[in-house]
């Protein structure tokens, strides 16, 4: 279905294998070109303390699959059987279940902080002890809303996001080799890509086709000058489906 197409997958290397495998199975030449690198937190002490006392919490919130991986790499005991986990999207839900977590709260339709906050079990939080695992920085909407609902919230930086390791020379080479589409899974990754490029490389990036799983990423790319942006569903299968639909029906309107 995607035979002859060369696509960039720009997720962190730890998260790219599933989507790359699906793209390869569909016939594409999928290239891993991570725009974010995942590293341990600058100060690991708060994470260790939270994990040592994980059974004291009423709910654990994970902002991404990277947060789940970072926590379970450090966890020295089984995950408490009665401790539910809340996540913002299907990628995190899939990873949580792979890690053996049984009780997972995930939005049914809107895969972001706003969608998670609409879930029935996220409404009555007064006096409940919550721990939120995330990367460095990021939006404050979710933690602020949880605290406004009365949650006793502990914020933990479980990992840090860093700029990509490759340089402009590698980017220029990849652009020259050819690219039929670029998958971008976060606004921060889009910003790293265009910050890395300059002059002709930036112009080349602005003319490329992008596949993104959230409108916020599309808005970021649009502000950076990208002109061809296709909005897909979330998760590996949703992104694959959007790519296949676009190339099956090339007149499909980009968003």
TrEMBL record:
InterPro entries per the UniProt record, alphabetical: 4pyrrol_syn_uPrphyn_synt_sf, 4pyrrol_synth_uPrphyn_synth, UROS/Hem4
Coiled-coil stretches noted in the UniProt entry, renumbered to this chain: none
E.C. number(s) listed in UniProt: 4.2.1.75
Annotated keywords: Lyase, Porphyrin biosynthesis
Signal peptide (residue range): none
Tetrapyrrole biosynthesis uroporphyrinogen III synthase domain sequence ranges: 21-230
Reactions it catalyzes: hydroxymethylbilane = uroporphyrinogen III + H2O
Functional summary from the UniProt entry: Catalyzes cyclization of the linear tetrapyrrole, hydroxymethylbilane, to the macrocyclic uroporphyrinogen III.
Family that this chain belongs to: Belongs to the uroporphyrinogen-III synthase family.
Name of the protein in its database record: Uroporphyrinogen-III synthase
Organism: Iodobacter arcticus
């Amino acid at each position: 279905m995607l035979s002859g197409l060369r696509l960039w997958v720009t997720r962190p290397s730890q998260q790219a294998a599933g989507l790359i495998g699906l793209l390869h199975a569909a016939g594409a030449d999928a290239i891993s070109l991570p725009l974010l690198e995942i590293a341990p937190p600058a100060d690991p002490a708060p994470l260790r303390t939270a994990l040592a006392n994980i059974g004291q919490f009423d709910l654990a919130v994970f902002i991404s699959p990277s947060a789940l991986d970072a926590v379970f790499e450090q966890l020295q005991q089984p995950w408490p059987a009665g401790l539910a986990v809340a996540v913002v999207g299907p990628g995190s839900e899939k990873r949580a279940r792979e890690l053996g977590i049984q009780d997972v709260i995930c939005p049914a339709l809107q895969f972001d902080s706003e969608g998670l906050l609409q879930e029935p079990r996220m409404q009555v939080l007064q006096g409940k002890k919550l721990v939120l695992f995330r990367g460095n920085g990021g939006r404050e909407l979710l933690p602020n809303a949880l605290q406004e609902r009365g949650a006793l919230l502990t914020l933990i930086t479980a990992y840090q996001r860093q700029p990509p390791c490759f340089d402009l020379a590698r980017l220029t080479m990849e652009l020259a080799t050819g690219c039929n589409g670029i998958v971008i899974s976060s606004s921060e990754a889009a910003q790293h890509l265009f910050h890395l490029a300059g002059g002709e490389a930036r112009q080349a990036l602005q003319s490329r086709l992008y596949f993104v799983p959230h409108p916020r990423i599309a808005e970021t790319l649009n502000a950076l000058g990208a002109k061809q942006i296709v909005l897909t569903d979330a998760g590996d299968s949703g992104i694959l489906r959007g790519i296949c639909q676009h190339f099956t029906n090339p007149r499909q309107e980009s968003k």
